[in-house]
Amino acid sequence: MASFFFFSSVQNRVLQNRAVPKALLCFTLCYILMLSFCMSSVSGQSFACGGGSSSFPFCDKSLAADARVADLVKRLTLQEKITFLVNSAGSVSRLGIPKYEWWSEALHGVSYVGPGTKFSNVVPGATSFPQPILTAASFNNSLYEAIGRVVSTEARAMYNVGLAGLTFWSPNINIFRDPRWGRGQETPGEDPLLTSNYGSGYVRGLQQTDSGDKNRLKVAACCKHYTAYDLDNWKGTDRYHFNAVVTKQDMDDTFQPPFKSCVLDGNVASVMCSYNQVNGIPTCADPNLLSGVIRGEWKLNGYIVTDCDSIDVYYKNQHYTKTPEEAAAKAILAGLDLNCGSFLGQYTEGAVKGGLVTEAAIDKAITNNFGTLMRLGFFDGDPSKQPYGHLGPKDVCTPQNQELARETARQGIVLLKNTPGSLPLSPTAIKSLAVIGPNGNVTKTMIGNYEGTPCKYTTPLQGLTAVVPTTFVAGCADVACGTAQVDDATKLAAAADATVLIVGENQSIETESHDRIDLHLPGQQTLLITEVAKASKGPVILVIMSGGGFDITFAKNDAKITSILWVGYPGEAGGAAIADVIFGFYNPSGRLPMTWYPQAYVDKVPMTNMNMRPDPASGYPGRTYRFYTGDTVYEFGYGISYSTFNHRLVRAPKQVSIPLEEDHVCHSSSCQSLDVVEERCQNLDFDIHLGVKNMGKMSGSHTVLLYSSPPSVHNSPKKHLLGFEKVFLSSQGEALVKFNVDVCKHLSVVDELGSRKVALGDHVLHVGDLKQTLSVRI
């Protein structure tokens, strides 16, 4: 408003032919020059390097990015530098740098979580894909990347109209170690390889530009939460106080691989450190984990950011330092670059003045931050004149994007049980369908957490009603199901040709800051299911909507429950996808990305025990399919189809020899394993060819999972996933599926000290019931 009054004053005096005071004229001219010199704006959004500020070297696109960043950093005062250590970064008007908000989210679509993104009447919604746990169940590498490309296009479109940032703190690639974890839904599951493939694929989809230039970013992704983070709030232990005690072996063969892959294979622009401590040190203050591993070993090209208020947490909740200035210094010296929160903004200057950290260390941090913004084109001037500058509201919620959301849900849905003659239902034979259950007509439940406003919803009831006539009763007031309305539900089921029960959970039961304490379906859902199944005259299809698994042994063994589907949180088009599978318009091919345990497992295993491997002495059964020794309800990788698929081995070696130098100790003494070293591993790979045939009457996709059971050395996994492929086959169709196996990468194990070794001896490769022994020798 001040500018309006100044301009009006000058204008009025000129119009009235009155003298303009020199002071007022000088001030006004200076103000005009400053406006033209500094920040420019497109669509109401300020951008850097427009107008007069474009003459600075840091705005010169012909210079190398590091030279541009160095020029910018040297022009800032200490106080200005500190404003670039926090997510709500400050502006520097004299250099034409506008404010920038780093915190945006895109877990499964552009999200309204975080202050960097919002929806409006210009862009009222964005494509909301299934939660990652269901997307991962597709076991489709190309799909993960395709979703990332759609999300980044919609994100850029929203950025161009001032509704989003360019830095998105997604994906979540923590291992779903314990079935009670409330955030398991955000992850790709329990397997390090699947999680790695999902994470690096989604990141490539988000980040890669059309030009393929690795020094440019479409948007910047962030892999989180580093590391060994998978407990939120369980029986009085919360993530702000939890110290994850992790062996070196478990760290390097379970918790770290997805992050390593995210940096090395995905070229991710950021890693977020977590709230918890690992072996007594807060991750955001650990120089070994940050500077040593992420920056040193993996060579991150980007920035390291805290989870929100993590420094405040380790100062106030964990009492890791005596003063806030010391806490700020420890984070920066550990290798942290950006603080989600205000802590570094408040206490860094005091840390510098107190001699706890140098200004050079701050320069290093903001250099990483500015380097990321350079790669995004933030300092390249008018966004509308840059690559992706043409994107806008028309590119959000396109029919193609919405169809991909539906296709993703279809590919992820897992068929767990199917009695002959049950599914698929006939759209013509079914004249009445009873839809029962607290998740039968839900909207927001389908998109889980870290969500955005979707383009539109198709509820399960709407999806099913679009195919056949339906009747509906929720059967419970909500998913907690304090009292099941059994009578209404059984009457409906008794009168219908078939019944679909849609139960499970929502964010009131499993979510961030809220872990489960058991594996039972909530409240009286089990009673509702059992009684409806008894009363039903036709097939009974149980549909479970959830992130985590349940002990549903009762349903698995109940002959009246003829089919069971797990549908995760299936996204905006979840209801349509569920109907597609139930009525046979789509042949299910999803596989479980996590083990479904019996209740007895969580009765004896505390969530706080981080050990992956079993301990026979104490009766501890271990965790995940790789190590768990007990009974399961459904195992990792389980899922059936409306077709039967046969596998046959076409090509695979029976022996692999590893070349060793003549004086190697293993020539003269017996060795269980060999160190993985680069010169030994070069060109040490082989191909496996599998013939796959669809024996059924229905065409569909098939998920091929290749496992290895290594020799029993170094407390190695019982089996572990080497690779997976998705293949589409028509009825009676055949295809050749090829895997390339790198001996040092795929057949290695991690020893007790955290070193990767190739296990010598017999490895058993298996796909389904097909097994092949491979002898690895020197």
From TrEMBL:
It is found in: Secreted, Extracellular space, Extracellular matrix. InterPro entries: BXL (IPR044993), Fn3-like (IPR026891), GH (IPR017853), Glyco_hydro_3_C (IPR002772), Glyco_hydro_3_C_sf (IPR036881), Glyco_hydro_3_N (IPR001764), Glyco_hydro_3_N_sf (IPR036962), Ig-like_fold (IPR013783). Keywords: Carbohydrate metabolism, Extracellular matrix, Glycoprotein, Glycosidase, Hydrolase, Multifunctional enzyme, Polysaccharide degradation, Secreted, Signal, Xylan degradation. GO terms for biological process: arabinan catabolic process; xylan catabolic process. Transmembrane segments: none annotated. Its EC number is 3.2.1.-. It is an enzyme of class 3 (hydrolase). GO terms for molecular function: alpha-L-arabinofuranosidase activity; xylan 1,4-beta-xylosidase activity. Residues 702-771 form the Fibronectin type III-like domain. Its main location: secreted. GO terms for cellular component: apoplast. It catalyses: Hydrolysis of (1->4)-beta-D-xylans, to remove successive D-xylose residues from the non-reducing termini; Hydrolysis of terminal non-reducing alpha-L-arabinofuranoside residues in alpha-L-arabinosides. It comes from the Eukaryota. SUPFAM superfamilies: (Trans)glycosidases, Beta-D-glucan exohydrolase, C-terminal domain. Belongs to the glycoside hydrolase 3 family. PANTHER family: BETA-D-XYLOSIDASE 4-RELATED, SUGAR HYDROLASE-RELATED. This is Putative glycosidase. The lineage of its organism: Eukaryota, Viridiplantae, Streptophyta, Embryophyta, Tracheophyta.
